[in-house]
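seq:
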Amino acid sequence: MVILENTSAALVIGLSTRRFFGSVASRTNVVRKTAIARWFSSPDMSDSGGEYETTYHAPVMWKECVSALLESNRFKSRVSGEGHSDPVVFVDGTLGGGGHSSALLEHLSAGDVVIGCDMDSAALNAASDRLSEYLGSQHEKLPLFVPVRSNFCELASVLPTLQNPLTNSPILGSEGLVDGILLDLGVSSYQINTADRGFAFMKDGPLDMRMSDEARFNAADICNEFDVNELASIFKEYGDEPRARAIAQSIVKQRPLRTTSDLVRAVAAVTPEFNKKSRRMGRTATLARVFQSIRIVVNEEDKALEKALMHMSPSLLRPGGRLVVMSYHSIEDRAVKRVMRYGNISANEMTVTKDMYGNPIGPPRPFRCLGKPTKAGEDEVARNSRARSAILRIAERQ
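struct:
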């Protein structure tokens, strides 16, 4: 077992035997073509079943996500037999329990690579155990899975340094590019259900909310050290919370806060359990916004997402490659939509100057939006309530 890391993080991979990438890929393409064609044309394509669900996490819209990745130009041309036979490389930037990566690996050929990245060592271990057959297996017809511990926003500097453990050559090849990137911005079921992580207001646990032990501070630090104005600003900006100042004042008044239950009591002190006019103003919805706001600040999610969308993805994706992003609240989705449409997160830079013929003037935008945003179907939401707020957007690198 060899462990490589970004700084002190883990790339876990078993090296039992050597596989031969190019020749095996060509022998398995016929089988893969048939399987993928049948999968794409299945009548329940819009209904993501629970095949890849585990006790760790239930991947949201896995069929839609994987199908979008496999529509990348290089993969399509290889399947059709009209293009190259080189291996393709995909990145699961938010590995979690490995559900999306598992589904993707099943539709790739020997020599292809899926790089799974996560900041959470528990997620890396769980996914590596689940996908162990792809970690340098003796089975010569399987693609390769490479788990890496890193924040997805740092992948532009991390991935070019990765060596293929079976060929001792750079995984990204001479071009240093990948064919698709998936970002699922939700919190995993495991993180929510583990009280010690402090993500959920339904469970009593330490006021933590860190996705990595390398975070600069935790949720207790914010609740106990930030002043009223800073707390109110956090709840307003990252949760669009109508009672932002009242909640901030209640938190300061009830200090010190050490557990999630302490924070729940502080919010409950100024929030009615139910609101006749709007469910959004009730206690449960308010707690969700407050916990979300603090989690975003603890993990600097807004900065990481901006860097990933503005720098990491454009620099790593080859032309014709796919960027597939699932967001779970309006702040994330707004950023994703703006970058995919206009190439910038800033609202001040969304205007488009056109010439007399209606053609855009200025530097080319990095992405081209594909289709409309997608939401999970009723059947999936019934199985997994956390899929209800998910919004999937897809773009192609130009």
